[in-house]
Structures are given as structure tokens and as C-alpha cells.
Specification:
Distance between the termini of chain A: 56 Å
Structural class of chain A: mainly alpha
CATH class of the domain at 11-31 and 119-357 in chain B: Alpha Beta
CATH superfamily of the domain at 11-31 and 119-357 in chain B: NADH-ubiquinone oxidoreductase 51kDa subunit
Strand order of the largest sheet of chain B: 1-14-13-17-15-16
Largest interface: A-B, 44 and 74 residues
CATH architecture of the domain at 11-31 and 119-357 in chain B: 3-Layer(aba) Sandwich
Oligomer: heterodimer
Radius of gyration of chain B: 32 Å
Number of helices of chain B: 15
Distance between the termini of chain B: 133 Å
Number of strands of chain B: 17
Largest sheet of chain B: 6 strands, mixed
Shape of chain B: globular
Structural class of chain B: alpha/beta
Strand content of chain A: under 5%
Strand order of the largest sheet of chain A: 1-2
Radius of gyration of chain A: 22 Å
Shape of chain A: globular
Number of strands of chain A: 2
Number of helices of chain A: 16
Largest sheet of chain A: 2 strands, antiparallel
Strand content of chain B: 15-25%
């Protein structure tokens, strides 16, 4: 008989058919509906921007792995770079110039992921690292929003117009398209001394289905929730972070808007606008940068939500999901070491249980 | 299973590997024709190896004592076939290392003649100690794989006044069905054995946990236990590792075994169904443990199923009996989750071998390990509530104390974490490595301490000897001086004396 029966590694000798590539693919499937909706809503420029961002993320991955003398093909096929690029793209203004996507994709992968040691080693969510870097470096381009310009609709940019917008900026013909987000509008009005009750009349409508100004894939809240639920049912993510993060935004928002509706936006507006939904289901739940224990996930999620609310309400930026997630990312190691699951036969402190007589 | 059940009713730990139990479990039990030679290892149990009491060339009958137990924790070995002792020497151990260990080889005479056995009509009239004694004499050890001498456990249970006997019919390992088969075909023996064990330890009730993927076994056991109200058949959810002591105890009684205590200390004791059947044979029929049911399964096997075979049979003979479809790509003793890889097939069947798996290339394929993506799936699966990814991260950089701070010692090596890991990181290998290194470090420490102690003792001894020598010298000197003084005194005194004497005499 064959005397070479494989290396004598420890059991088990059977394994799951799951792999990182499949996990990433599932997340992409869950992300697809809201992104496709974004494509339809904002037209050709957004499709091009999405492609450029992902291509740049993959290029960054390939380049860096080549420079490190590691095989690039395996890492590229696991889908993590595509997903990073995708998540970054959907958080960008849909008509942003091409170099925003290109720079963001490279920045996120190289400085957000590979300088920490590659897949699984990064402290911060790479997509959010890129988004924050872009927002701080290019505030104008990163806060130029457009209203709905559905694909194939009258007056929307065609495939060629899209290229023009991408590479040469928004031409005068489409200037009318620019618009403000709910959060941005209310913040600007408040800074002029116009309170929410007065500005509400001409504030941009908050559409449930997402037909409004915003990032490429953040406006369709219900489609994002549907994708997120799919991930929870498929057991790709647990419910803890999304629920805690939404609660972290909704609870203070509900309390403060009940106390002073003229100065604090209500919970529904907070939940439905900006990147909260995308953040709760797709960004904060990133495995690498979030805690592992159920309690830790609740703490982390609530912290993300609460910080988002604090930044939106009192800080200079109208939106705070990216900052909040990154701040909580930094706390993840502490949360992980503090909130460990209880071990069988031990109490919460890790001491052996007493034998009851 | 309802959608909500998935979230609320099921235990949160464990995994659901494809069980591959059928069709092997449904195939009727086959009896292996007596092999020409059997190789009976002296160490088939936890504890000291048995000491041979036969000599080469001696004729032995089936069931005759070959080697006696040695030490408090040990078990005797008996002849699985009748014939002649051919040799006492080394064979390859069923261990990943493939190292040799001692075995007694018997050439079969093909007659399978039993020694005279002592039948006991009413074993319940016996004292509990006698049951333990008979089980010990018959070489009964835990047949679920732990191979701990059963009688020692009986004594422990008796001493700690265990109330509940948990009978493990979980058999949660994929591919294996030897326990399933023994419950289906010999339910009466199992139930009788359960009652004997209860008698031996003084337990009031027995809970037989059987995974609900074995409805035939549950039905057979219910029928056999129908007239004994103290023996309760309890179907448990199918979930690996349900057959692990701690998890089965928790599922059946709700009790948790403290991490530094034994199950008996919370009033329960766990015995495997096959062990109970062996106790039945040992006590009622006086038959020592010389045969067992072994599952032959895996993609490389032509007719998978359960075989009743003498212990010491070579895996080669078992594989020849069931036939091979092709060259196996991997041979495993036990199940795929916790089994032992076999280096080749010239390895004897031992008491704890519930299955021999011959995997084909597709089953044996192991995906390449990738980086940890910290998904936490391992932590969700861990039945002990440990954090495998954190322990592995520490072990990667040889920080064993760091791993121990995550309670590495509580790991039961069930393999759930490595099974579910999407990056296919061999986590159990990491943990076994770390446990081995820590044990080695502990041994080195003990040795260093001992050396230090000896060195200190030596220094102290030399010091003492020096002092003693000095004292002795001083004493000698003092004696000498005293003697000299005495001499001098004597020299003077006699003069005086003599003067006196002289005076007197004068």
C-alpha cells in the first residue's frame, strides 16, 4: 500500500466548503441591489466611477503584492480588494471626478490595508480610511452632490456625457442637477440661524426609496436593509452590530428631537439619511476591524451609532459615519480584550465555577 | 426546523458537518473471519502498559490473560483468538508519530476456542466493588475513544456518590456508526450494561443521550429499556460535538463541569454505550474485552459498514475484508474530527478504535491555509466558549503564556474551529503544538528545579562534610591535646603518686 498518506497534521480531516472568496461574494450580492439602484438613480457617471474605484483598488492590491514578492493572483480572486473598492465607491458622491475614485482605491488598499500587513491585519476599515482621507483632502469634490438623474431619463447624461462629467467635471448643461443632502442642508441652514422648523418647508425631500441626493449607494435605505438581512440570515454577519449601531443613532436622536425639535433632527431622518444604513450593515460589520464577542459587538455598534450622532449634531461635518466607524475601529482591540465570551465551566471573570454541594 | 428555532432553540456552539454515516450505518453487521495473526498491543488504554505473563510458543485460548494490569491506572490484555504466542515485540502504534510499541503476536489456530468463563446468574446480587473488579479483570476501558480504565471511573463515581449516569450514545463524529450499530443490534446488552454500571457506582438514574439522527437506535433502545424506568432514553439534537462529555452533560442535565473539576464532582459520570455492552459481557458472561464493532467507512472503501472483529487485527486485514475501490489517500483511526492519522495500514485494531476511515483523494484534499480574516466563526463554533483566533494569534508568535491567558488548557481539541474556519487554518494543530510546547517547558522547568535542588543539596552536603571534617579534626586535636595533657598529667601524677607510693612504701 501507499506509505505516503499525507502529512500527520492534527485533526480535523474534513473542513467547511466556505472560504473568504465565498464570504466576499455573498456580501457583494447583498450590496448589489442598492448599488444597482444607485446606478439607475445617478446614471452613467456613477457607473464609471464605480468601475474606476474598484479597478484602482485591485491595481493597488496587485502592485503591492508584487512589490512584496507575494503571489497576487490568489489574493485578487478572494474578492477582498473588489469589496473594499466597491464599499468605497458607494460612499462617494456619484458624480465625483475620476481621480477621486482612483486615488481613493489606491489609498484605501495600500495605506488602509497593506501597510498593516495585508488581509486580516488592518486596524481600520480600508474603505473608510480612503473616504476620510478624500473628505479631508478634497472637501469640495467630496461634498458635491447631485439630485436624481435616472438612467435613460429625459435630460440625464448619456454614456458620453458621463465620460465628460467623469474626466472634465460637471458641464454647465448639468449644473442644475447639483443638490444638497438632507443632513448638509439642515447643517448649513442651522449655521445661518435658520432652525429646523423653518427650514423644513424647503428641505430636500427625504425619500424612503432613496430618490434623493446622496452617495452613490447609500440612499436606498430599504434595499440596504434587505441586503443586510440577507447577510444575517446567511450567517455572514451577526445581528449585533447593525442593531446596536442603529439604536446608537436612533435613541439619542429620538430623545433630543423630542426635547427640542427646532434644533435636533428626528430619529427617522437620521436613520434614513447619510451612510447610517450602509455603515450599520456593511461597513461596521467588517470582520477584521470589529470585535468578535457578541457583547463586544453590541458595544462597538452602539459606539459607532452614538459617535455618528454626536459628529452629525455637534461637529463641523454634516455626516460622521466614516469617522465614527474609524474611531470605534481603534477601540476594537480594547473591546475584544475586555468583553470575552464566558468559557464553559468558568465564570465571567474566567475563574473556575464552584462545585455546589 | 423552523426559522426561529435556528436562532433560539439550538445550542449556539458546535458545527454541522456532513455526517456520511449512511449507508455504512444501515449495512448489517458483518463478522470478520478469524485473521491468521493478531497483534495485541500492551498499551491500549490510558495509564501503565500491561505486563506480559505468557511466553513465546505458549498455547492460549480466546479470552486468556496475556498481560496483567500494572499500576493503579492500567488494564489487562487478553487473547482475542485461540492459538500460539508467536512473538512479543514491536508493532507500529496507532498514533500520528508512527512510533513502535510493544505487542503480543498470536498465531491463530482457527478454532476460536474460548477459555472457561464464569457465568453470573444475578449480578445485581454482587457487591458494587465486585462489578468493578470483574470489569477491571476483563480489561474494560472507555470504548468511546478515551480508553480510560472503566473500573477506576466506577470507583471514583462510587466514592463521590454520583447520582446520575450519563450514557453516551451521541456518536457525533461523522462517518462513524459503531455505537449506532451496537444500540440497534445489541440494545438489551447495552441496557443491561447500563444497569450494571449504575449498580457499580450507586447511581439512581441513567440518561442515555442519543443524537436524533439515529431514530433506529433510539427505537431499539427505548424497547430494551421499556421495563426499566430508571434508564431514560433521551434523544439530543444532532450537533457536533454532542458526544463530548461536557457538552452532553450540559445538554442532558443543564449542569456545567467546572473547568478544574471532574464530571463526578457535579454528580454525574459518563460512559459510552459500547463500554456498557462490554461491562455486560464482562460481568454476566465473564468474557474479557477481546472483540469490538468497528466502522469501516470512507470514499476509498468498496463496501462500507460495521465489522465485528477481534482486537489486534491489522487494518490491512480489515481493509481487505471490506475491499478497496482504490488507493486510500488518507487512513484515519477514529472519526474525521478528532481521529488519528495512520502512517500505513499495518497497524493493529485497539480497544478505543471505533472506526477506520479510508479517504479517497477528494475527501483527503485539504485546502491551503490563508490569513485569518477575524470573522469570529471559530469563536461562535467553539463549544467551550474559547476564542480560537486569539489563541492562534499568540501561538503564531510562540507566546504560549498569552495563549494560556485565553484558557488554552480548556480546549477539548474537538476541531470545530478548524472545521468552520473559512481560511482553513489548522487551528487544532496550533493548539496541540502549544500544549506540547508548554508541557515540554513544564518538564524542563521541573528538571531544572530538580537539578537546582540537587545542586543546592550537594553544596549543602559538601559544606556539612567540610564542617564535619573540621569538627572531627578539632575533636581529634582536642582529644590529642587532652590525651597529651592527660599523659603529661599522668607523667607528673605517677611521680607524685610514686612519691607518695614511695613515701608510703618508704
Amino acid at each position: 500500500m501507499n506509505d505516503n498518506l499525507g502529512s500527520p497534521v492534527a485533526a480535523p480531516y474534513t473542513t467547511t466548503s466556505n472560504n473568504p472568496g465565498r464570504i466576499m461574494a455573498t456580501v457583494m450580492v447583498a450590496l448589489a441591489p442598492s448599488t444597482l439602484y444607485g446606478f439607475w438613480l445617478y446614471g452613467w457617471p456613477s457607473i464609471y466611477l464605480w468601475l474606476i474605484t474598484i479597478a484602482s483598488a485591485m491595481l493597488g492590491e496587485a502592485f503591492f503584492l508584487r512589490a512584496m514578492d507575494r503571489p497576487a493572483s490568489k489574493a485578487l480572486t478572494d474578492g477582498s480588494a473588489i469589496l473594499t473598492g466597491w464599499l468605497l465607491a458607494v460612499s462617494l458622491p456619484p458624480w465625483a471626478p475620476w481621480w477621486i475614485g482612483a486615488f481613493g482605491g489606491l489609498f484605501g488598499i495600500v495605506l488602509g490595508k497593506h501597510v498593516f500587513g495585508g488581509l486580516g491585519q488592518n486596524l481600520f476599515n480600508p474603505a473608510m480610511v480612503a473616504r476620510v482621507a478624500l473628505l479631508i483632502s478634497f472637501p469640495v469634490q467630496m461634498t458635491s452632490w447631485v439630485g436624481a438623474a435616472p438612467l435613460f431619463a429625459e435630460g440625464s447624461p448619456g454614456p458620453l456625457d458621463g465620460l465628460v462629467i467623469l474626466f472634465k467635471g460637471i458641464p454647465a448643461a448639468f449644473d442644475a442637477m447639483t443638490s444638497a443632502t438632507t443632513l448638509g442642508f439642515s447643517k448649513t441652514e442651522m449655521s445661518r440661524g435658520v432652525d429646523l422648523l423653518q427650514s423644513a418647508a424647503h428641505a430636500p425631500a427625504l425619500s424612503m426609496i432613496g430618490e434623493r441626493a446622496g452617495s452613490m449607494g447609500e440612499t436606498a435605505a430599504w434595499l440596504i436593509i434587505a441586503g443586510g438581512l440577507m447577510l444575517i440570515i446567511k450567517r455572514v454577519i451577526s445581528w449585533h452590530i447593525p442593531v446596536a449601531m442603529l439604536a446608537g443613532v436612533a435613541l439619542p436622536a429620538a430623545a433630543l428631537s423630542a426635547y427640542d425639535p427646532a434644533h435636533f433632527l428626528d430619529a427617522q431622518t437620521h436613520l434614513m439619511s447619510g451612510g447610517v444604513m450602509l455603515g450599520a450593515f456593511f461597513i461596521a460589520t467588517d470582520y477584521v476591524t470589529s470585535p468578535n464577542s457578541p457583547v463586544g459587538r453590541l458595544v462597538f455598534g452602539f459606539g459607532c451609532g452614538l459617535l455618528t450622532y454626536v459628529i452629525r449634531t455637534w461637529a463641523g461635518y454634516p455626516e460622521g459615519v466614516a469617522f465614527a466607524v474609524m474611531l470605534m475601529n481603534a477601540l476594537t482591540p480594547i473591546i475584544d480584550s475586555h468583553f470575552r465570551p464566558r468559557i464553559y465551566g468558568r465564570n465571567r471573570k474566567g475563574l473556575p465555577l464552584q462545585v455546589a454541594d | 426546523m423552523g426559522f426561529l428555532d435556528r436562532f433560539f432553540k439550538e445550542p449556539s456552539w458546535g458545527v454541522h458537518p456532513d455526517d456520511h454515516k449512511r449507508p455504512a450505518a444501515d449495512a448489517p453487521l458483518r463478522i470478520l473471519p478469524t485473521p491468521e495473526r493478531v497483534y495485541m498491543p500492551l498499551s491500549q488504554h490510558v495509564g501503565g502498559a500491561a505486563r506480559p505473563i505468557v511466553v513465546v510458543g505458549q498455547k492460549v485460548l480466546k479470552g486468556q490473560l496475556l498481560a496483567d494490569a500494572q499500576g493503579n491506572i492500567s488494564a489487562p490484555i487478553h487473547a482475542p483468538v485461540s492459538g500460539t504466542v508467536f512473538s512479543i515485540g514491536d508493532v507500529t502504534a496507532p498514533h500520528a508519530s508512527g512510533l513502535p510499541f510493544r505487542a503480543i503476536t498470536i498465531e491463530s489456530d482457527g478454532q476460536d476456542r474460548w477459555i472457561d468463563t464464569e457465568l453470573v446468574a444475578d449480578p445485581f446480587a454482587l457487591a458494587p466493588e465486585d462489578i468493578a473488579r470483574k470489569a477491571a479483570a476483563a480489561g474494560v476501558v472507555g470504548l468511546g475513544g478515551a480508553t480510560f480504565p472503566s473500573a477506576v471511573k466506577f470507583a471514583l463515581g462510587k466514592r463521590l456518590k454520583v447520582e446520575t449516569l450519563i450514557v453516551n450514545g451521541g456518536e457525533c463524529e461523522p462517518y462513524l456508526s459503531s455505537d449506532d450499530r451496537i444500540m440497534r443490534d445489541f440494545a438489551d446488552q447495552v441496557v443491561d450494561g447500563v444497569r450494571l454500571v449504575m449498580h457499580a457506582i450507586g447511581a439512581k438514574e441513567a440518561l442515555v443521550g442519543i443524537e436524533d439522527n439515529k431514530p433506529e437506535a433510539i427505537a431499539a433502545m427505548r424497547k430494551a429499556a421499556a421495563s426499566f424506568s430508571e434508564v431514560k432514553i433521551c434523544p439530543v439534537p444532532t450537533r457536533y460535538p454532542m458526544g463530548s462529555d461536557k457538552q452532553l452533560i450540559q445538554t442532558l442535565t443543564g449542569k456545567e463541569v467546572p473547568s478544574n473539576a471532574r464530571a463526578a464532582e457535579v454528580g454525574v459520570l459518563v460512559h459510552n454505550v459500547s463500554t456498557c455492552a462490554a461491562v455486560h459481557k464482562a460481568v454476566r458472561l465473564g468474557q474479557p474485552l477481546v472483540e469490538r464493532i468497528v466502522t469501516l467507512n470512507g470514499g476509498a472503501i468498496a463496501t462500507p459498514g460495521n465489522i465485528y472483529a477481534p482486537l489486534g487485527t491489522l487494518v490491512t486485514d480489515l481493509l481487505a475484508f471490506v475491499g478497496l475501490k482504490g488507493e486510500p489517500a488518507r487512513l484515519i483511526l477514529g472519526g474525521p474530527m478528532m481521529g488519528t492519522p495512520l502512517a500505513h495500514d499495518r497497524i493493529p485494531l485497539v480497544k478505543g478504535a471505533s472506526g477506520i476511515l479510508a479517504f479517497n483523494a477528494a475527501e483527503a484534499a485539504t485546502p491551503e491555509a490563508g490569513p485569518c480574516i477575524r470573522c469570529g466563526t471559530c469563536a461562535d463554533a467553539c463549544p467551550m466558549g474559547l476564542l480560537p483566533m486569539e489563541m492562534a494569534a499568540h501561538i503564531r508568535v510562540e507566546d504560549f503564556e498569552g495563549a494560556e491567558s485565553y484558557a488554552l488548557g480548556d480546549c477539548i481539541s474537538c476541531g470545530c474551529c478548524a472545521y468552520v474556519c473559512p481560511s482553513h487554518i489548522p487551528l487544532v494543530q496550533y493548539f496541540s503544538y502549544a500544549k506540547g510546547e508548554m508541557m515540554a517547558a513544564e518538564r524542563v522547568k521541573l528538571r531544572t528545579d530538580a537539578t537546582k535542588r540537587l545542586a543546592e543539596a550537594r553544596t549543602a552536603r559538601i559544606e556539612r562534610e567540610k564542617q564535619e571534617k573540621a569538627e572531627a579534626a578539632a575533636r581529634r586535636k582536642a582529644e590529642k591535646e587532652a590525651a597529651a595533657a592527660a599523659k603529661a598529667a599522668a607523667a607528673k601524677a605517677p611521680a607524685k603518686d610514686s612519691g607518695q607510693a614511695q613515701g608510703e612504701t618508704v
